[in-house]
Design goal:
Length: 391
């Protein structure tokens, strides 16, 4: 903001000054009379009366005339800040601003009388400080939400203006940004509250959002007998639809307030992603297990195959269940056939070793082998010295 260094004084006529100072009444109080002095521009009036009274009257009138002399101080004030300043700055001090809104100008002026010069300079400093600490900024509000920013009957804009003492300019084209002008602290507070109020309104608007999932994942999103869909609708207060005119390209949409709908969509997508991850992990595990599977034959003499099988096949059932393998028995009356064990290679080898051991040992028909997992130093506790307890 720029100021002119010296005030501009407009000199009124002598008669005007005397009228403003109420010279006639003052002359009566001092006991003197005023007579026109025609043709004298320096002293247009003569004072008639006692010398002391006349001198006192002249001093009084000179003080009144100098004090009532009008003073005008031009100054520059930004157009956006002008509506925020008061026209009457103090008693006898006025701020004159441009009246035409269609032709804005920064040219303003402080007007007062000479006697109020000191107070006018103080007000001038106050205005200068306000201009220095003022700013203009725009809230982060999309043009599509200007209606929420303005409010019904411009109630929201009026509320922000009155609360923070700022000017809010909403463009008519709805393409330019909203501009908030005023003191820096007030502008920041107004923008923050306006953005929060608009965001609250936007979150309450009813919308239809698509759930971006594959058509084959619709069953995961809905759940068995609609259990997942019911849970989402109850938790977020929204509706799930499998057909939508708004988003026909997606298999599922969520309808409800924007904030709740966004949370529901995120929850469904997270659930589908987690289920797909588990399915992929299971498929990978199955593929890995298939790679690790193998079929190993049980190498026993044909005459001992029956001992490996056990009565009614109870030994192979016991081994198959314990090691998680599949055991295929040889066909009868076919020479050279063997018992085949299929499963994870490690488990299949353990099962084959156990069947071969039972086929070659002298076991009772109803007995099977069960491995005893003990440390080497504990063998003597189980078997006894030199295997006496085992015997």
């Amino acid at each position: 903001m720029s100021y002119r260094p010296k005030p501009v004084v407009k000199e009124p006529s002598g008669q005007t000054l005397l009228k403003q100072a109420n010279a006639g009444k003052a002359a009566e109080n001092f006991g003197v009379k005023l007579r026109p002095h025609a043709g004298n521009l320096v002293a247009p009036f003569l004072v008639k009366g006692k010398q002391e009274a006349a001198q006192a009257f002249i001093q009084h009138m000179e003080a009144c005339i100098c004090g009532n002399r009008p003073l005008r101080m031009p100054l520059q004030i930004p157009v956006d800040l002008q509506p925020l300043l008061k026209t009457k700055q103090a008693l006898g001090i006025w701020l004159k601003m441009p009246l035409r809104e269609d032709d804005p100008s920064e040219s303003c002026a402080l007007i007062c009388k000479e006697k109020d010069r000191a107070l006018m300079l103080k007000k001038l400093a106050d205005i200068e400080g306000q201009v220095r600490s003022s700013e203009s900024a725009s809230p982060d509000i999309a043009p599509t939400h200007y209606g929420e920013a303005i409010g019904k009957g411009a109630a929201r804009i009026s509320y922000i203006r009155e609360k923070y003492g700022v000017r809010v300019n909403v463009p008519k084209d709805r393409e330019s940004p909203i501009v908030v002008s005023g003191l820096s602290a007030n502008v920041r507070g107004a923008i923050k509250e306006l953005e929060e109020l608009v965001q609250q309104d936007v979150l309450q608007q009813c919308v239809v959002l698509p759930v971006e999932i594959l058509p084959e994942d619709i069953g995961i999103a809905i759940g068995k007998s609609g259990c997942h869909a019911s849970k989402v609708q109850e938790e977020f207060g929204v509706k799930l639809r499998t057909h939508s005119r708004e988003h026909p390209e997606w298999p599922l949409v969520v309808e409800g307030p924007l904030g709740a709908a966004e949370k529901a969509v995120a929850s469904i997508q997270l659930q589908v992603a987690e289920r797909r991850r588990r399915n992929e992990e299971f498929a990978e595990e199955q593929r890995r297990r298939e790679e690790l599977k193998g079929t190993i034959p049980v190498c026993v003499e044909p005459g001992r195959i029956g001992k490996a099988i056990g009565k009614s096949g109870f030994r192979i059932r016991h081994v198959a269940q314990r090691h998680g393998v599949t055991i295929q028995l040889p066909e009868r009356n076919k020479p050279g056939v063997q018992i085949l064990v299929t499963g994870l290679k490690e488990n299949a080898r353990a099962a084959v070793a156990e069947l071969e051991l039972m086929a070659n040992l002298k076991l009772r028909p109803e007995h099977v082998l069960v491995p005893l997992h003990i440390r080497r130093e504990e063998h003597i506790l189980v078997l006894g010295p030199e295997g006496s307890m085992a015997a």
